[in-house]
C-alpha cells in the first residue's frame, strides 16, 4: 500500500513556521502585507481569494483586497498595480487569474514589481529560477518540492517525469527538480509514447488537467506520484489527473486529491510573502 503524502499536515507546518516569523516581526513593530486584486466575479476565483485571505488572517499577515468589477479597464488595473508597487507597506501583490477576456494577463502579471511578485510569475523571477539565483518561486511547484523533501523522498539522481509544460506548473516544476539534481524529462500533448516514458519515472508529476488520466498502466512499481490536477468527477467528487484507486496499490507514495498539492500552493504563497517582508527589513 502506498504512503499517502499528506499536504494538509505539511502545509499546516509551513503556515505555523510563517506564523512564528510574523509574530517575531510584530514584536519589532514590523508588518507583513499582501495585496490581492480580483477582477470580476468568477466563482472559483472568489473561493481562491477567500482562502488566501483566510490564510493571511491565520498567520497574521495583513491583507488589502481589491474586488474590481468585470468592466474595469486594463489601464485601471495597471494604475492600481503601480500604486501598490510604490506602497512601502505592501510586501506581496497577487492578481487572481483568470482575468476577463479584455485584459492581457501577461502585461498585468509583468507589471507587478519582481520584488513583490509572490506568485513567482514575473520574467525576472522565472529567469532567476533558470539560472539558479534567488527569486520568488511559483507556489505550486515550490510546494511540491517541500512535499517531497518533508516526506524524506530523495530527488537527487531520480528520474523525474513531469507531464505538462505550463508556465505556472510544468516548466518551473521541471527546473526545480533539476535544481535538486533530479534527471528530468518533460512531456506534453505532442509527446509520443507517453506511457513508455511515464513508466520509467521514479517520481511522476501529473499536471495535464485531465481527470483520472493516469491509471496503473502509466506507472512503474514503487514510483512516487504527485498529482497536481483538480477536477470534479461525474459524482461531483474532487479528483486529480491520476486515478488514485487504480494506482495506489502499485506505487510507494502518492498525493491525494484533495489534501495533497492543493493546500501547499497557499502555504507557499504565505511563505513567499514572509520572505518578501524579510528582504524588505533586510533580515536573512
Ligand atoms: P495547462 O492547461 O496550462 O497545461 C496543461 C499541460 O498539460 C500542457 O502543457 C499540455 O500540453 C499538457 N497536456 C494536456 N493534455 C495532455 C496529454 N493528453 N498528454 C500529455 N500532456 C498533456 O494546465 P496547468 O499547468 O495550469 O494545470 C494543470 C492541472 O493542475 C489542472 O488540472 C489545474 O487545475 C491544476 N492546478 C492545480 C493547482 C493546485 O494548487 N493544486 C495549481 C495550478 C494548477 P501542451 O503544452 O502541448 O498543450
From TrEMBL:
Tetrahydrofolate dehydrogenase/cyclohydrolase catalytic domain span: 5-119
InterPro entries hit by this protein: Aminoacid_DH-like_N_sf, NAD(P)-bd_dom_sf, THF_DH/CycHdrlase, THF_DH/CycHdrlase_cat_dom, THF_DH/CycHdrlase_CS, THF_DH/CycHdrlase_NAD-bd_dom
EC number(s) from the headed UniProt entry: 1.5.1.5, 3.5.4.9
Binding of NADP(+), residues: 164-166, 230
Entry keyword set: Amino-acid biosynthesis, Histidine biosynthesis, Hydrolase, Methionine biosynthesis, Multifunctional enzyme, NADP, One-carbon metabolism, Oxidoreductase, Purine biosynthesis
Annotated GO biological process: L-histidine biosynthetic process; methionine biosynthetic process; purine nucleotide biosynthetic process; tetrahydrofolate interconversion
Single annotated GO MF: methylenetetrahydrofolate dehydrogenase (NADP+) activity
Annotated GO CC locations: cytosol
Pathway membership: One-carbon metabolism; tetrahydrofolate interconversion
The keyword Hydrolase is assigned to this record: yes
One Pfam family here: THF_DHG_CYH_C
Keyword Oxidoreductase: yes
Recorded superkingdom: Bacteria
Catalyzed reactions per annotation: (6R)-5,10-methenyltetrahydrofolate + H2O = (6R)-10-formyltetrahydrofolate + H(+); (6R)-5,10-methylene-5,6,7,8-tetrahydrofolate + NADP(+) = (6R)-5,10-methenyltetrahydrofolate + NADPH
Record domain Tetrahydrofolate dehydrogenase/cyclohydrolase NAD(P)-binding: where: 138-280
Its biological purpose: Catalyzes the oxidation of 5,10-methylenetetrahydrofolate to 5,10-methenyltetrahydrofolate and then the hydrolysis of 5,10-methenyltetrahydrofolate to 10-formyltetrahydrofolate.
NCBIfam families: PRK10792.1 (NF008058), PRK14186.1 (NF010783)
Self-association state and partner proteins as the record states: Homodimer.
Family named by the database record: Belongs to the tetrahydrofolate dehydrogenase/cyclohydrolase family.
Protein name: Bifunctional protein FolD
Protein's organism: Candidatus Scybalomonas excrementavium
Amino acid at each position: 500500500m502506498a504512503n499517502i503524502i499528506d499536504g494538509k499536515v505539511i502545509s499546516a507546518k509551513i503556515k505555523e513556521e510563517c506564523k512564528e516569523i510574523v509574530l517575531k516581526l510584530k514584536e519589532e513593530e514590523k508588518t507583513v502585507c499582501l495585496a490581492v486584486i480580483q477582477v470580476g466575479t468568477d466563482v472559483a476565483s472568489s473561493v481562491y481569494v477567500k482562502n488566501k485571505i483566510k490564510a493571511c488572517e491565520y498567520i497574521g499577515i495583513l491583507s488589502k483586497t481589491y474586488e474590481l468589477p468585470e468592466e474595469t479597464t486594463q489601464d485601471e488595473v495597471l494604475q492600481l498595480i503601480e500604486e501598490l508597487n510604490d506602497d512601502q507597506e505592501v510586501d506581496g501583490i497577487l492578481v487572481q487569474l483568470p482575468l476577463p477576456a479584455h485584459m492581457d494577463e501577461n502585461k498585468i502579471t509583468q507589471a507587478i514589481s519582481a520584488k513583490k511578485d509572490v506568485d513567482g510569475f514575473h520574467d525576472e523571477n522565472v529567469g532567476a529560477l533558470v539560472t539558479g539565483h534567488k527569486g520568488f518561486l511559483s507556489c505550486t511547484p515550490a510546494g511540491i518540492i517541500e512535499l517531497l523533501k518533508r516526506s524524506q523522498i530523495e530527488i537527487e539522481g531520480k528520474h523525474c517525469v513531469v507531464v505538462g509544460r505550463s508556465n505556472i506548473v510544468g516548466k518551473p516544476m521541471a527546473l526545480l527538480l533539476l535544481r535538486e539534481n533530479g534527471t528530468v524529462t518533460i512531456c506534453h500533448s505532442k509527446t509520443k509514447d507517453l506511457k513508455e516514458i511515464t513508466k520509467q519515472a521514479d517520481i511522476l508529476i501529473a499536471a495535464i488537467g485531465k481527470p483520472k488520466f493516469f491509471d496503473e498502466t502509466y506507472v512503474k512499481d514503487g514510483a512516487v506520484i504527485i498529482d497536481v490536477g483538480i477536477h470534479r468527477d461525474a459524482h461531483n467528487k474532487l479528483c486529480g489527473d491520476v486515478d488514485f484507486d487504480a494506482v495506489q496499490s502499485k506505487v510507494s507514495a502518492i498525493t491525494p486529491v484533495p489534501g495533497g498539492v492543493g493546500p501547499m500552493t497557499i502555504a507557499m504563497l504565505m511563505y513567499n510573502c514572509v520572505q518578501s517582508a524579510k528582504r524588505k527589513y533586510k533580515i536573512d
